[in-house]
Every structure is written in C-alpha cells, then in structure tokens.
Design a protein that fits this description.
This protein is about 35% helix and about 35% strand. By secondary structure, the chain is an alpha+beta fold. The protein has a seven-stranded mixed β-sheet, sandwiched between helices. Helix 1 packs across helix 3. The longest helix has 15 residues. The termini are far apart.
C-alpha cells in the first residue's frame, strides 16, 4: 500500500477522470448547486482533462496506490513582469474513498516544493467558500485566506483565495 506521487501522462486519463468525477459528484454535493454538478458530464470532464494532460503549461501529478490513481493535483509557476515567479495550485482532488490517508498532503507537499524550486516565494489557490473540509485541510497545511473572492458564472458559488508563503 505504498503511495507513489509521479507526473501524470496522457495514459492516466481514465484514472484521473475517475477521481475527478467522484470528487465532483460526491464531495461537491451540497457545496455547488446540483445544476453545476450535473453539468459536469463524463464528456465534458474528458475534454477538460485531455486538454490539461496535454498542455505544456503547468504540471499534473497523480498519486497512485495499489496500481490505481487515488489523487491528482495541477499547478504552475509563472514569471510575471517584475521578474518574480508566481506559484499557483490549480486543482487538488483526492478520491472520496481515500480521504484521510495522507494523499492530499503528499500531493500538496510535492507541488509546493516544486514551486519553490522554480523560484516562487508563495503560492495561491482557489477553494469554494462553502467547502469547509477543504478549507480546514489547507489551513492545517499553512495556507490562509488572503481576502480575495470570486464567483465564476459556470459554478455560481463564491470562492476564496488562499495563500501560502515560504520565504
């Protein structure tokens, strides 16, 4: 039952979709409106993750246990106009059947370590404001709300931005 965190490949698509859709349909129930959850069809999710897995901008890691994918994260370091490097964690999903097993922590630790190695002094991520378990997880890992909020029309729910600095 060893956990392996490694870069994702296009061959991981089916495992990535399984984790993503389970999170979307189970973990987000009660966080997002049912219409937003129902709008994430299998085909829409496949189109999204095919694009993400083939996009050279950013990195996708998968966590694998017993030959199956149990978690995914996507992150990127980008240089801005003043020469600083900004880090962003774009997504972090752990199979609802594997919550509490250290998978999210392992993925987040590797992502932030790689962002630091790329020169980022901090990183941000967005989380649905109603997703108390995820907010608690991030806060336990040293992330804190930075006051920024947004509501994306496709989801219809408020998100808060969280930040972690390591300098």
């Amino acid at each position: 039952m060893t956990l392996q965190v490694r870069p994702a490949t296009p061959d991981d698509l089916s495992g990535v979709l399984e984790v993503f859709l389970a999170c979307w349909r189970e973990s987000y129930r009660g966080v997002l409106p049912d219409a937003a959850i129902d709008a994430m069809t299998d085909a829409r999710a496949e189109t999204l993750w095919r694009r993400v897995l083939s996009d050279p901008v950013g990195i996708v890691l998968v966590a694998e246990r017993d030959g199956g994918i149990v978690g995914i994260t996507r992150y990127a370091a980008t240089s801005n106009s003043d020469g600083r490097v900004d880090g962003a964690v774009h997504s972090l999903y752990v199979s609802p059947r594997a919550h509490g097993g250290g998978i999210g922590g392992a993925l987040l630790t590797q992502a932030t370590a790689e962002l630091r190695e790329a020169g980022a002094e901090a990183a941000t991520l967005w989380v649905f404001a109603a997703n108390a378990p995820s907010i608690g997880f991030y806060e336990a890992k040293g992330w804190h709300p930075d006051g920024a909020t947004r509501t994306q029309p496709e989801f219809g729910e408020s998100e808060q931005r969280m930040r972690k600095e390591w300098t």
